[in-house]
Amino acid sequence: MPDGVVKIAREVVRYTILSHRWSDEEISFTDVQTGILHDKALTSGRKKLEDFLDHSRNEYGIELGWADTCCIDKTSSSELDESIRSMFRWYEKSSVCLVHLGETHTFEDLEHDVWFTRGWTLQELLAPKRIRFYNTDWVAQVTEIPLPNLKTRRFGIRAFRPGAWDVDRRMAWAANRHVTRGEDVAYSLMGVFDVSIITAYGEGQDRAFCRLIEAIMMAGGSPSILNW
Hints:
Elements: H1 3-12, E1 16-20, H2 29-34, H3 44-60, E2 65-66, H4 68-71, H5 77-93, E3 96-100, H6 121-126, E4 131-134, E5 140-142, H7 167-174, H8 184-187, H9 190-193, H10 205-218, H11 224-227
Parallel strand pairs: 1-2, 1-3, 3-4
Antiparallel strand pairs: 4-5
Pfam families: HET (PF06985)
Domain Heterokaryon incompatibility: 15-105
Protein name: Heterokaryon incompatibility domain-containing protein
């Protein structure tokens, strides 16, 4: 396909993107590729994926949906590395981000949902231009984020812009979030600060975080990093 056609397609193709907390029953890339998805029992992971696609189609008229559990080949280290470094941009380019809060049943449960404590979901909260929350039963709870850094300005431009400034304040946003693998403390913040470092699982949390700080400083990081 000619490069010009590819460029136009990327600019006009609309897709939704899923933000969620992983469970032990997620649909994997291999499940989709091998075609055994249709033979699988209706696990919680499969139901979540199907509900996500149904809402994308029925509420927004969008046929294409992206979910990290089944759209990334995690057996390929190069694809995993590229995906991690591209994640913020993928969420930013989506038409709408659908957030599934698996532990939220009522509006009162919202602030206690574990989704708000995970490291990776910070950029999934900040990056999209349009975001909508759903409770565990896929009932819409919140349609707009009531914080200045998360609101949409005119013409679809978000108030939040990724970059190497306000480092201390942005680090504070991430301070109480948790990740499964220590290195993800650093990797999950690349998009927030608009920097890119190669992923190297096994290097340890401290080394990964030092490389992140170095990348932020090299990108012209603000002096506020010293306050943090």
